[in-house]
């Protein structure tokens, strides 16, 4: 029986997660549901006997990492959030997966399978029965981390947050610190990120390429490529009159990346 704690302040999100847990082919029990930082601090101070935590990040009364920093958590955590900027914080804790809302059952299932793999591959010492008592040793022996890429990127407006499919983005553009995504119908979406470096961390580098200091292009929406001058290429984008240009420093690597 897998004993799970849910750290989630949104009732619909808890309902969806519990539905996924019921659907997953393993015996599972939700032993506690926590909604605030205060709840987290009180509950985990006693070091409860649990196997796994599902945790949102932005709770009603603040950021959950403010609580985790004050605690010694020895339980693996699967984070689920609408924000992509905390993934580094997640893996500085006992985080083993990072689900970006809204996530599918398939994504949830992969995260659970990762937990089960960790549980079965880590051999406990004779006096240790808890999976996390070997988690530090496991991560210290890893020489490579398989990076997963997001399917959606949250776009926050003054009234609501919506989710933009990354596969539908033709290119990203930075303009004096404002990061925009242009979708397949050439609609502009102003993102929450403040630099293209944050975009680079979440997109698949086999699909997106940084052609200059301010633009990432999706190769699936390149209509044609032509010579702009000796060291610069002009890139025509599908469904758009937009022409992007490679920088002199990036032209050679772009040619190699695109295969020309």
How would you describe this structure in keywords?
Rossmann fold; five-stranded parallel beta sheet; 260 residues; 2 domains; 8 helices; OB fold (Dihydrolipoamide Acetyltransferase, E2P); alpha/beta
Give an account of the 3D structure:
The protein has about 260 residues and is of the alpha/beta class. It folds into 2 domains: about 140 residues, Rossmann fold (3-Layer(aba) Sandwich), CATH 3.40.50; about 110 residues, LytTr DNA-binding domain (OB fold (Dihydrolipoamide Acetyltransferase, E2P), Beta Barrel), CATH 2.40.50.1020. Helices cover about 25% and strands about 30% of the residues. The strands form 5 sheets. A 5-stranded parallel sheet has the order 2-1-3-6-7. A 5-stranded antiparallel sheet has the order 12-11-10-14-13. Strands 15-16-17 form a 3-stranded antiparallel sheet, with no helix packed on it. A hairpin with a 4-residue loop joins strand 8 and strand 9.
